[in-house]
Design a protein that fits this description.
Strand content of chain A: 5-15%
Structural class of chain B: alpha/beta
CATH topology of the largest domain in chain A: Rossmann fold
Shape of chain B: globular
Distance between the termini of chain A: 58 Å
Radius of gyration of chain A: 26 Å
Number of helices of chain B: 11
Number of domains of chain B: 2
Oligomer: heterodimer
CATH topology of the largest domain in chain B: Rossmann fold
CATH architecture of the largest domain in chain B: 3-Layer(aba) Sandwich
Helix content of chain B: 40-55%
CATH superfamily of the largest domain in chain A: NagB/RpiA/CoA transferase-like
Largest interface: A-B, 61 and 58 residues
Largest sheet of chain A: 6 strands, parallel
Helix content of chain A: 40-55%
Distance between the termini of chain B: 23 Å
Number of domains of chain A: 2
Radius of gyration of chain B: 18 Å
Chain lengths: ~475, ~220
């Protein structure tokens, strides 16, 4: 088994990728605007609910319960799904899942598929795998279509083309749909996408979807969306293949009551999603006549193995933590080098890969806690970031200069006497860098600070010296 | 200021660091002896005032876990004994002492940066605002997007210097828009970061910890 999360293993380290993206003024304007809008909408509809905190706690409890008994719930789901006429496939990793899906399509002699938004398929690099097998995938979610036509990568879990503005979208459509005279009003762009997609919906015989939830007691699958393109994808084709990450299970149908309140409010600031599609197996002559579910592990059992951080798998992919994150707001999603960006991506991506790749991601946070505050399933992201940093240090993978510095500083801070001595030493060592009471152009790691900011010099009299002179320190 | 209110203030010179920097950077094994030293130094103290919400957050949120991970029940008991006596500065005044008017005078336009730990870990709410509103001569100016992080984050400011600086720029824009003379906070760490940025821009705005404002008895000289 080998876990791959998109192209995360080959991605540039976060600080380097971020540095480049920060130069893009247009991108940063788009990001600020988009995250401000979604944050505002979310806050409004969340504040309407008097029991929001109870809902969050309930969701956390349900998800933690599912993780504890995941094995039996998955087997129950398989059994119920089969009873309803579905076919269930188990995939240990992305390449197994891609192979299963390509196999189903080939067996039907087809060479095209339509897709409803599924981040999991991006995690699997499904589109690349299908193309390599001679199959053409068409993304039908408007934002995913923009990404696919623009030969781009998603930058947000819920709003994958968040980094693009209207005129950029127009340019992509003009070029790829051969529409020279296309306007840039929302109506123009929507109409162009509709015409382009309708033809695919009516022609292509196999659909691929992801799932927001999979219900163990009924074997049913749930997809929520805003456009209706997903509804087309799961109802028009003859064959439907649904990819489900194994952590998406909910025990009972009534558990949806909690999650269908939390998810839309957190994700898009809507009280309810315009389209909620729930199905269990094929039915009569209406809709798909053949239904497959691919249950994907791809590192999820790695994540489950560590009790300090397994609650990462509680995530319902609402993206609220991305919109709230002051780091994401500056860099956008591409800096994270993974289909999963933002705070949740910073903990999920490295864990799926058993910390063998993406080690810079747990450091891509100031630990401000805004992500934890908005998380609808109460994942303590800051604590998990700290835990993962600890795991990286434990493996000996932290940079040598950092390890030496932390050891030295740890020694200097270990008691009051050493701290006093360190302050006195610093007053001498800082002299060459001191200008008007500020330190500038510091060497090595500290250059990261003084490139952008001044640092107040250690003062002539420290607090403890002042206090001692004041003659009131009782000391111990 | 505390003495003026009739309290006896003791500074135990053996104290050093709560261990937050090491803990947050992933050096949890280095943080443990710092925590043990902290617990030892402050054992028996009646009330522990910590004028830094991030240190208080470290102690409240992480000390109990650290003790239990260290497999040391005695340390766990000492931590449990310590926690109810730990107060952040504004908590001490408003919650423990029940005071909002400390009799301070500070004739300046001041804006408050509500630091992340004070907001989201300690949940101090409007305590610092209530204290500042009672300061004579002080004009409190609202900071736009106040709840956004300043970009400090300890090692983050060094390991992700470019992103940290971009976050700081946004914070500085908001501060400059207020036209305040002074920025204050419950945390010197955020203030050190903000001050570094303001100083580099020659902005002429001072960063002053809330304790200094609340201890103000006469006009301070302009920077």
């Amino acid at each position: 088994m080998s876990v791959r999360v998109g192209h995360a293993a080959e991605a540039e380290d976060f600080p380097m990728a971020a540095k480049k993206l920060l130069q893009n003024r247009q991108l940063r304007d788009n990001l600020r605007h988009a995250t401000d809008v979604i944050r505002g909408k979310r806050a409004k509809v969340v504040n309407e609910l008097p029991d929001w905190e109870e809902l969050r706690s309930a969701a956390h409890e349900v998800k933690e319960h599912v993780l504890r008994y995941l094995g039996s719930y998955l087997e129950q789901f398989e059994q119920k799904c089969k009873q309803a006429g579905g076919q269930v496939h188990w995939a240990r990793d992305a390449s197994e899942a891609n192979g299963i899906i390509a196999g189903i399509i080939k067996r039907h002699g087809e060479s095209e598929v339509i897709k409803v938004k599924t981040m999991t398929s991006d995690e699997m690099s499904l589109n690349d795998a299908l193309q390599a097998a001679g199959i053409t995938p068409y993304e039908t979610d408007l934002a995913d279509l923009i990404i696919q036509l623009g030969e781009d990568a998603p930058s947000h879990i819920v709003v994958p083309a968040l980094h693009r503005n209207r005129s950029e979208v127009r340019q992509i459509f003009q070029e790829k749909m051969h529409l020279k005279d296309l306007g840039d009003r929302p109506e123009d762009l929507t109409a162009a996408a509709r015409e382009y997609l309708r033809e695919k919906f009516l022609r292509v015989k196999i659909g691929i979807s992801g799932a927001n939830f999979a219900i163990a007691e009924s074997g049913s699958v749930v997809v929520v969306e805003s456009e209706g393109n997903g509804r087309m994808c799961v109802s028009l084709p003859r064959v439907l293949i649904t990819i489900v990450g194994i952590e998406k299970i909910l025990p009972r149908f009534e558990d949806l009551e909690i999650f269908l309140q939390l998810l839309p409010r957190s994700a898009t600031g809507e009280r309810m999603n315009p389209y909620n599609s729930i199905w269990a197996g094929p039915s009569g002559t209406d809709g798909p006549q053949e239904f497959h579910v691919v249950l994907l592990d791809n590192g999820r059992t790695n994540v489950m193995a560590d009790p300090e951080s397994s609650e990462t798998l509680d995530c319902i992919r609402c993206g609220a933590c991305l919109n709230a994150c002051p780091v994401y707001r500056q860099t956008g999603g591409h800096a994270y080098g993974s289909v999963y960006a933002g705070p949740i991506g910073a903990i999920l991506t490295p864990q799926l890969q058993a910390l063998e790749h993406s080690q810079s991601l747990p450091y891509a946070s100031s630990l401000c806690g805004a992500c934890y505050e908005v998380c609808p399933v109460k994942i303590n992201i800051p604590d998990i970031l700290i835990h993962l940093r600890g795991e990286i240090v434990k493996r000996g993978d932290a940079p040598l200069n950092e390890r030496i510095a932390m050891k030295a500083v740890g020694f200097a801070l270990s008691n009051g006497r050493r701290l006093s001595t360190a302050q006195k030493l610093a007053r001498i060592v800082q002299r060459p860098f001191e200008h008007d009471g500020n330190l500038q152009d510091l060497p090595s790691m500290l250059a990261g600070w003084t490139t952008f900011r001044d640092l107040a010099a250690v003062p002539k009299t420290s607090f403890r010296e002042w206090w001692a002179e004041r003659g009131k320190g009782t000391g111990t | 200021m505390l003495e003026g209110l009739g309290h006896t203030v003791e500074f135990r010179s053996a104290q050093a660091c709560c261990g937050q920097m090491h803990y947050n950077a992933g050096y949890q094994t280095h943080a443990l002896p710092l925590m043990e030293h902290f617990v030892l130094v402050f054992a028996g103290a009646e009330t522990i005032c910590i004028p830094s919400s991030s240190c208080v957050a470290m102690i409240r949120d992480h000390y109990p876990k650290m003790a239990s991970r260290a497999g040391n029940p005695e340390l766990g008991r000492q931590v449990a004994d310590l926690l109810p006596r730990v107060f952040e500065f504004s908590e001490l005044l408003v919650d423990k002492l029940g005071i909002t008017d400390v009799g301070a005078f500070y004739p300046h336009a001041v804006t408050l940066h509500p630091s992340c730990h004070s907001l989201r870990s300690l949940c101090v709410g409007d305590k610092p605002v209530r204290l500042l509103q009672k300061v004579r001569g002080l004009r409190l100016v609202e900071l736009p997007d106040s709840e956004q992080c300043c970009g400090f984050g300890g090692m983050f400011a060094i390991k992700n210097a470019d992103v940290s600086a971009a976050m700081l720029s946004e914070k500085l824009e908001c501060i400059l828009n207020t036209q305040a003379e002074v920025v204050t906070a419950l945390d010197n760490s955020c203030l050190m970061h903000i001050e570094g940025g303001l100083s580099r821009r020659r902005a002429g705005i001072k960063c002053v910890h809330i304790a200094e404002i609340l201890a103000g008895t006469e006009p301070v000289s302009q920077a």
